[in-house]
Amino acid sequence: MDVREKLRIKMIENAAEINRLHGRIHETVKRRSESEKAKQEWSRACGEFHAKYEELCLPGGPYTSFYERILAGDPRMIEVALCFLEVRPYFFRSGYHWKTILQKCKRAPMTGDHAERFATLLQKYAHWRNERRASSKAGATVRKDLVSLELRFFSLFPIKLPDHQFENIVTAGDLYRTICKALKIDPRQDWGVQGVVRKPHRAMPQADMALWAREYRAWRESLRTPQDVWATLVSLIKGVYKLEDSAVITTETILRDPRT
Fold first, then answer.
1. What is the pLDDT of residues 1-42, one digit of tens each?
2. Are 114 and 82 in contact (CB under 8 A)?
3. Phi/psi at 241 (nearest 5 deg)?
4. 135, 121, 198, 192: which is closest to 169 by C-alpha?
């Protein structure tokens, strides 16, 4: 196995470990108010994540003066940077690191294989950006049609959906799966389990910011199951479209502008 392949495998493994550590924070934060032991478990998860993140977040952690060495044309550091850009590992803040490394590589002197690989990568990135722009334009049209639903999302789901995620939303099922993905919830549909309709986050005077923050955090953490997401979405659709409670909403229900 050559150095390039080892680097790529290491980056993928490190990304998986970062995601595992980050996942532990999300798992333990839900239980931290249950007991002192649970709070300590959450604190340990946070501490372990922050202690290991810089080391695991390749490239950067193990290398001193990483960006400076890229700009100076250090072949070893350019190889590390190119592997990271090509692999594009996914983890907390990986997008920020990817864009930073890309900008450094644009200013770095490269020759031979490195120059060819970077030129190919830039072409693929430009193609991806063009597709994303087209997707966002199409998604913005769908979003406009569903604005009556979308305006009430944030009071029910702590998510922000960019335009491109609306492009292929046609049915209630499409919207449900998009919301679940944004919430990092597996969109399983166990129709034998009744979900709980979530209440909107109530507006509060922000005089007591600590109280507001605690209540908002509890509200964010209260949505835990795909059944609850579906039950809340169905309730929202019925309310916006002014449907009877007895109306049946399925994943195949077509979403339309209620004004038409």
1. 688 888 888 899 999 999 999 988 888 877 777 788 888 888
2. yes
3. -85, 0
4. 135
